[in-house]
Amino acid sequence: MSHTANIRPGQIARLVQIGGERSFRRRLMELGFLPGTSVRCVRRVGVGGLVEFEVRGGHISLRASEAVALVFESDR
Prior knowledge:
- By secondary structure, the chain is an alpha+beta fold.
- It is built from 2 helices and 6 strands; from the N terminus they run E-E-H-E-E-E-H-E.
- The protein has helices at 22-30, 64-67, and strands at residues 2-3, 12-18, 38-45, 50-55, 58-63, 70-74.
- 17% of the residues are buried.
């Protein structure tokens, strides 16, 4: 298992766990970040500290400080 910081752009990983406060976890789940879902790291943007993910066909950008709450298991 690894945190978002270890996922490289283009890599696909399976989401295992979402940390953080309950309202934060609920918001991410509403966006499609559900445990067991395959997620692809699209890119990291240094300006603003954003991480873009592809999840369930959509592209979602999170602050790097929020993305560290995601725990992944490498798919490929």
